[in-house]
Hints:
Elements: H1 3-23, H2 29-45, H3 47-61, H4 67-73, H5 77-92, E1 99-104, E2 110-116, E3 120-125, H6 130-141, E4 145-150, H7 155-172, E5 180-182, H8 189-194, E6 203-207, H9 210-223, E7 226-230, E8 235-239, H10 245-255, E9 265-271, H11 278-287, E10 291-294, H12 296-299, E11 305-306, E12 324-330, H13 333-343, E13 348-352, H14 356-365, E14 370-373, H15 382-386, E15 392-394, E16 403-405, E17 412-418
Parallel strand pairs: 3-4, 3-6, 4-5, 6-7, 8-9, 8-13, 9-12, 10-11, 10-12, 13-14
Antiparallel strand pairs: 1-2, 2-17, 15-16
Helix pairs in contact: 2-5, 2-7, 3-7, 5-6, 13-14
Amino acid sequence: xxxxxxxxxxxxxxxxxxxxxxxxxxxxxxxxxxxxxxxxxxxxxxxxxxxxxxxxxxxxxxxxxxxxxxxxxxxxxxxxxxxxxxxxxxxxxxxxxxxxxxxxxxxxxxxxxxxxxxxxxxxxxxxxxxxxxxxxxxxxxxxxxxxxxxxxxxxxxxxxxxxxxxxxxxxxxxxxxxxxxxxxxxxxxxxxxxxxxxxxxxxxxxxxxxxxxxxxxxxxxxxxxxxxxxxxxxxxxxxxxxxxxxxxxxxxxxxxxxxxxxxxxxxxxxxxxxxxxxxxxxxxxxxxxxxxxxxxxxxxxxxxxxxxxxxxxxxxxxxxxxxxxxxxxxxxxxxxxxxxxxxxxxxxxxxxxxxxxxxxxxxxxxxxxxxxxxxxxxxxxxxxxxxxxxxxxxxxxxxxxxxxxxxxxxxxxxxxxxxxxxxxx
Length: 425
């Protein structure tokens, strides 16, 4: 990129962030709720414009993006209707309680721990335009402003959503539309700028493919910007020796209803004492149109293709082999936990077991963001589990929000201290 272009892009992102910061003062619970309801109504009113913009994006991306990515990019009337329903639910959800705790010290100082907004938060996400509304709504609900940045494949749709749906709803509720900023540039350098402005954007939510998101994480760290990253996924299902075969089949089917999503079945672990079930499981995957790749241990029991990737390789982000699952054989619950913890992203893992003891050992031993017993990892989703949409799923190992991140997590703690001027150290 030429120097002039780089400077223009920097000015663009800084301008959006500065305008969003100015709008913070207008973000109040009694204004945000009607704004979210207005956005829901706007989605219905502007449905044709949004779908037309999206159709252009999808047409331009055909032959460039794989089918899973195209599915995430594509909006339909039912998907827009569901997005509007989620906005209404979020509008009706209780606002954050501002006071976490209160106590009085022996010297008379009154101390309270309080939630305060972060300020302006950046959000970089894949070609999935509905995420723009989800993230903006979550941040507004927590009284934060946002600067959105998406890839070129979804920029036309996201621009329409921001300009024709979200900003008009904000203005109608007395909130400057600039509270939701947008990087209106296709260049990937826009994401690099977004993660390099700690004075204006101290936190950035990152969603996307592993390699590109990991690079943005490194840039953010170098610039002093904090991140909540949703870079990798892939659900794990462990079949214990006590598993009911019927439940195993139900869970495999329920975990593969969509292939281009992060919480689908990615790695299937089967206890060696029930490895004789592997031929049927490979047959089931074939019925579902899913290829089975396996380790040497798995290949000893069923016809699987040789695994030429790491055990936890995420097939959902592999454009040429999205419809794939990895199979391995393990000797114990402990080994299943060890592989899930060591070889995968830590998004979600589940167990099929009639033995409550085995289930407890697995649930206690797994260190990922969500663990399941007789439930598919497809439920590793903020909306499915908490009733409000998520900004993403944070798989990091640092204190703070982990797992599905919603408006309930997007705040800072502040201690407020009140005395009578007589206290001293």
